[in-house]
Structure formats: structure tokens, C-alpha cells
Amino acid sequence: MQPISQVEGSFTDVDARYVIVVGRFNHHVVDSLVEGAVDSLVRHGVDEDNIDIVHVPGAWELPLAVKRALRVVKPDAVIALGTVIRGGTPHFEYVAGGCNSALGALQLEFETPVANGVLTVNSIEQAIERAGTKAGNKGAEAAMAAMEMVSLMKRFGGQA
């Protein structure tokens, strides 16, 4: 029996073109996510000239801007950042579900990593915790996922 080979990405071959698409709604939280993502990319050797940041009104608008970035800019990875906080109506489910589903579909359609750093939380306190306090910075984590996937895609050949 032949051994099973293992392939995974690393953080040593990550200099590539990244687009960060940011939903401005709840900007007091999202700004920290962006800072975490950019800091993580730069600390791992990504040239700041290879990082573009696109702002949209909110999480609902993220997929359209991500799609246009994938088509026009042709980055090696996209990092989607935003915050959707549950309220007293079903609006949360529609925005969060629609955004997440569309981002996943775009990743497959364009065969390009789309790291999902969109917080879907029950309260502003939870959002703040995930933007750099108790629960770490989910923007930085999304950037790490994007870099690992860029490295992995390079190993498979093709883009990145």
C-alpha cells in the first residue's frame, strides 16, 4: 500500500496580491478587523503595495464587491471583513446567511481563496471581543487563512 501524501500551505510563500473588502457598517468594530488583517499580512512578508482595501456600505454588499475584485483585479486572495449583529428581527439571518453563502460560492466560481472574516454575533460585546480583545482578532485570523490558502494554491500550480 502506497503512503498517503500530505499537502498543506505554509506562511513562507505568501507574498501575493490581496484585496481586503470591508463592510463599513459597525465601523467601530470593523476598523480593528482591518488593522489586524493588514498587520498580519505585512508581518508575514506581504508587500504593502500588494494589499488593496475596498470599502462597501455593509456585509450585504460584500459579495458584489468581492466578485468585481476577483474579475477585475484578479488577486491571489480576497479577505472579506464585516460585522453583522443580531437584532430583534429576522434581518440578521438574511444578511448573514446571504453574505456567507455568496462568499463561499464566489470562492468556488473563481477558484481563488476568499477568507471569510465577517463576524456574525449576538451582541456588540461579542463583536468587540472578536475584534481584538478576549477572542483575538478575527481579521488577523482571516488574513492567516488567506495566506495559507495562497501558499497551498501555489503548490497546486496556477494562480498565486
Description:
The protein is 46% helix and 18% strand. It has 160 residues and is of the alpha/beta class. Helix 1 (27-43) crosses helix 5 (138-156) and helix 2 packs parallel to helix 3 (91-110). It has a four-stranded parallel β-sheet, with helices on both faces. The protein has a single domain, classed as Rossmann fold.
State the major sheet.
4 strands, parallel
Shape: globular
Helix content: 40-55%
As residue ranges, the low-confidence spans are: none
Number of helices: 5
The count of DSSP E runs of length 2 or more, i.e. the number of strands, is 4
Tell me the CATH architecture. Answer: 3-Layer(aba) Sandwich
Helix-strand sequence: EHEHEHEHH
Beta content comes to 15-25%
Binding site for (2S)-2-hydroxy-3-oxobutyl phosphate: 88-89, 130
Function: Catalyzes the formation of 6,7-dimethyl-8-ribityllumazine by condensation of 5-amino-6-(D-ribitylamino)uracil with 3,4-dihydroxy-2-butanone 4-phosphate. This is the penultimate step in the biosynthesis of riboflavin.
EC number: 2.5.1.78
Catalytic activity: (2S)-2-hydroxy-3-oxobutyl phosphate + 5-amino-6-(D-ribitylamino)uracil = 6,7-dimethyl-8-(1-D-ribityl)lumazine + phosphate + 2 H2O + H(+)
What layout of secondary structure does this protein have?
Layout: E1 18-23, H1 27-43, E2 51-56, H2 62-72, E3 77-85, H3 91-110, E4 114-121, H4 124-130, H5 138-156
Parallel strand pairs: 1-2, 1-3, 3-4
Helix pairs in contact: 1-5, 2-3
Question: What are the defining features of this structure?
Answer:
alpha/beta, four-stranded parallel sheet, 46% helix, single chain, 5 helices, 160 residues, Rossmann fold
